[in-house]
Amino acid sequence: MRDDTARATRESQSMMLSRNVARPPALVTEVYNAILDRITCLQIPPGARITVDSLARELGVSHTPIREALSRLEAEGLVLKTHLVGPHAAPQLNRAQVEQLFELRLLIEPAGAAMAASHLTDKDRNVLQALYDEMLSLPDKPFPAYGEFARKDAEFHSVIANASNNVFLTEALAKLHTHVHIFRLVFNTRVTTEAITEHYDLLSALLRGDSGRSERAMRDHISASRSRILELTPP
């Protein structure tokens, strides 16, 4: 009887430990998204120092998940760390860099969409539809909806890239973090409103499995985005 009780106690403790181990990554992701939203929406301006203490108080968490989230953002090039100064938000892209970024996107993303159209799984289709619906339902408010839209938009494009079945294309886009850089340049709800219509055209083509139309829709979307961003970007 004592053996059964001891075994039950160990199993209970093991289950509790498993739950405790599983929670921190989710917390770090929540903190990461919260900081990313603030960077995207310019609540943390480009070049601004990021204070761990103030973020911990604002988000109601300890220093540990803040530091882990900042390390992740640093690895992605969105946060920089300077000796004796600490972390600060990466500078914005200049106009020449924006043009180069869109040139690269136009070279690879339309081709990726064409490939994805013939490789989409049912799960991919469901995820893309869900992301589109979520972006469509976001309230027309500057924050935090704008930052959340940027994350959903990035995920939408990431699903398409992954469905291309081309690992080099997928990795290239992942390393660019294009959507964060772009949304930081223009904290403007017009960007989200017009992108929704373009996403609808792209999603429709993908769900039909039409490679040619998917390629054109992606090219049109990126070209329109390029025009919007450059119009609002100082020379």
Detailed description of the structure:
- The protein is mainly alpha-helical and 235 residues long.
- The chain folds into two domains: 2-89, Arc Repressor Mutant, subunit A (Orthogonal Bundle); 95-232, GntR ligand-binding domain-like (Four Helix Bundle (Hemerythrin (Met), subunit A)), CATH 1.20.120.530.
- The protein has ten helices and two strands; from the N terminus they run H-H-H-E-E-H-H-H-H-H-H-H.
- It has helices at 2-40, 52-59, 63-75, 95-117, 122-137, 145-163, 167-176, 178-185, 189-207, 211-232, and strands at 79-82, 86-89.
- Strands 1-2 form a two-stranded antiparallel sheet.
- A hairpin with a 3-residue loop joins strand 1 and strand 2 (86-89).
- It is globular.
- The termini are far apart.
- The relative contact order is 0.12.
- GO terms for molecular function: DNA-binding transcription factor activity; sequence-specific DNA binding.
- Keywords: DNA-binding, Transcription, Transcription regulation.
| Architecture (CATH level 2) name of the largest domain | Up-down Bundle
CATH class of the largest domain: Mainly Alpha
State the low-pLDDT regions, or none.
8-23
* Annotation, overall tally of beta strands: 2
Describe the main β-sheet briefly.
2 strands, antiparallel
Residues in helices, as a percent range: over 70%
Shape: globular
Count of discrete domains: 2
CATH-defined superfamily of the largest domain = GntR ligand-binding domain-like
End-to-end separation: 79 Å
Structural class: mainly alpha
**What is the radius of gyration?**
21 Å
Q: What proportion of the residues form beta strands (DSSP E)?
A: under 5%
Domain HTH gntR-type: 25-92
Protein name: Transcriptional regulator, GntR family
Keywords: DNA-binding, Transcription, Transcription regulation
Pfam families: FCD, GntR
